[in-house]
Amino acid sequence: MAYDYDKYIRPGKLPHIWCPGCGHGIVLKGLIRAMDSLNLKKEETAIVSGIGCASRLPGYMDCCTLHTAHGRAAAFATGVKLARPEMNVILVGGDGDGTAIGGNHFIHACRRNIDMTYVIMNNYIYGMTGGQFSPTTPHLMKASTTPYGNPDPSFDIAKLAIGAGATFVARGTAFHANQIDKLIAEGIQHKGMSVIEILDDCPTTYGRRNKYKSVIEMMNRLKEVAVPVKAAEKMTAEQLQGKILTGVLYKADLPEYCAEYQKVIERSQGGAK
Amino acid sequence: MSKKVAFLQGNEAAAHGALYAGCNFFAGYPITPSTEVAEVMSVELPKIGGKFIQMEDEIAAYAAILGASLTGKKVLDATSGPGLSLKQELIGYACIAEIPCVLINVMRGGPSTGMPTGPSQSDVMCAKWGTHGDHASITLMPASVQECYDMTVQAFNLAEKYRMPVLVMPDEIIAHMRERIEFREPGELEVIERTAPSVPPAEYKPYDTRFGDVPPLAAFGSGYKFHVTGLNKMQDGFPTTKAEIVQAEEERQVRKVMDKVDEIVDFEEFMMDDAEICVVAYGSTSRSARYAVNVAREQGIKVGMFRLKTFWPFPDKQIKAIADKIKGFIVPEMNLGMCSVEIERCNMGKAQILCVNRVDGEPLNPDQILEKIKEVK
């Protein structure tokens, strides 16, 4: 299928700010393919982000775009969605923005199961500020603020989303580019809170400090660690050591927040109980 | 037809004022002593098809109203001191992105948790200087339950007219006391709606100064596509670091309010015609001040009261004119001296300034103010 990238790119806003080798552009293209495959109307689609490299994505999209404050994308987006439930609301951002400063809004958006799609680009680092460790930086890895190795354990974003109540949770990687659009499209179509974690790379501030010799090496790592959920079913615990599951990890059909609030309106007006 | 009257708390009246103004989206977080605003909105909004949401924290509540406002809703949040502190970054966001919204902040003691059930007036500087960066502030100070209603309507009008956040700040006494109030009839108070763009979507820019210092704001989902950011931006809404554009936009965002100070500033003068002493008061403190002025007048002292109904923008012009005519200002406040700093600025050394300050969670009583009136030389 031929995709119309230009249709969704805001005229005159490229080139993007991302470094050579950064995977965010791969995710941007995946998002556009997903939107194009569903033929989403641009004026009926809000793309909301926080602060950080990944959060610059909305500016490139020819939609209703909202670049909010650091960590607050999910809370702003909740206001947009509840106020206008007919709009498609897509959130984009990074691991630090979404799960550190924005962690509270993230888990509560999941808990409400409000019909939004959150694409989290997880590159394990605060890139824009120069490479400080984030909640997803693996234990013992190096960042500008963990010069002796990261003492923290890390979040599993997908597990966090499932635990908090999101009803569609998937994981892909920047290497598996052709899967990204399918996961995002399924998330957009799902009625409820969808979280799509994309394992990404930051050669500039993460790769460099952690002895990755090239972007290709970082991409090869994503290729090697990723195991599709279906394939994992046939593997032993030993074989799964150090691997990361990809694909649709969780899907459930549960009441969606805006629909539930519509029932509140009906009850307040003496309608449906 | 007789008017609908009720015996309400200030917080309840403020919520009904918001509904009169057309508020159709509320997000909040529970906090004493403002929670009744949220409770009333949770009852009333769904009845008219509006939306109420209790968010996970104070910051989220303010974020949600900003998101909803961008879809064209008239939006309200309510909080108190600690919540006001938490929301500051996003108040700045509303200033720079120019998003209309109203926040009711019921003043209790502080800093920090302070005295959650006690009255205070110690948030007045936070209302203007709390968020970082240059920006204008509009802050209204009700002194009765009826004013909680009326000023909330006015706050929505100002927010929509000037495309910015507006604060209504009753102190805890005003927010929790009960008085008789009249519900306004439709048409009795002016209700201002947001100016919609007059250009088609293809030509629309969210900060298009061809339309003046307050450019029209389109709504997400209404056919208009545009970009909103907290970065310094150009007229098309996209970020810029170009010095001349940043300078011009920053100046416009302050000028849009400061050029209209005479329209925005509201005040009451009580027995000021021949006054040699002026008590400058606001909120519940003005009620004690009025009593003290009456008693002092009975004793032959030429004293009057200037009551601030808008705290920000500050009525510089009026205070400067009074300073030329009088011997002394008395500034009673439930804080350790905040309004008095502004009075000092406008007074420019002309009249004597005596402060009456109380931060123990008790109201300022008339005797304390009367005592100071008698100290003016």
Q: What coarse outline of chain B follows from CA principal-axis ratios?
A: globular
Instruction: Tell me the CATH topology of chain A.
Output: Rossmann fold
| Major beta-sheet overview of chain A | 8 strands, mixed
Assigned CATH class of chain A: Alpha Beta
What is the strand content of chain A? 15-25%
- H-E string of chain B: EHEHEHEHHEHEHEHEEHHEEHEEHEHEH
What percent of residues of chain B are in strands? Answer: 15-25%
- Give the integer mean of the pLDDT values of chain A: 97
State the CATH class of the largest domain in chain B: Alpha Beta
Q: Which fold name fills CATH's third level, the topology of the largest domain in chain B?
A: Rossmann fold
Rounded Rg of chain A: 18 Å
The average pLDDT value of chain B, as a whole number, equals: 97
Radius of gyration of chain B: 21 Å
Distance from N terminus to C terminus of chain A (CA atoms, Å) equals: 47 Å
Largest sheet of chain B: 7 strands, mixed
Give the number of helices of chain A: 12
Strand order of the largest sheet of chain A: 2-1-3-4-8-7-10-9
The helix/strand series of chain A, from N terminus to C terminus, equals: HHEEHEHHEEEHEHEHHEHHEH
* DSSP strand tally of chain B: 15
In the residues of chain B, how many domains can be counted?
3
Name of the CATH architecture of the largest domain in chain B:
3-Layer(aba) Sandwich
